[in-house]
Amino acid sequence: DAGVIQSPRHEVTEMGQEVTLRCKPISGHNSLFWYRQTMMRGLELLIYFNNNVPIDDSGMPEDRFSAKMPNASFSTLKIQPSEPRDSAVYFCASSTDIYNSPLHFGNGTRLTVT
Amino acid sequence: EDKVVQSPLSLVVHEGDTVTLNCSYEVTNFRSLLWYKQEKKAPTFLFMLTSSGIEKKSGRLSSILDKKELFSILNITATQTGDSAVYLCAVEQVQGAQKLVFGQGTRLTINP
Question: Of A21, A27, B12, B112, which has the fewest CB atoms closer than 10 Å, so is most exposed?
Answer without folding.
Answer: B112
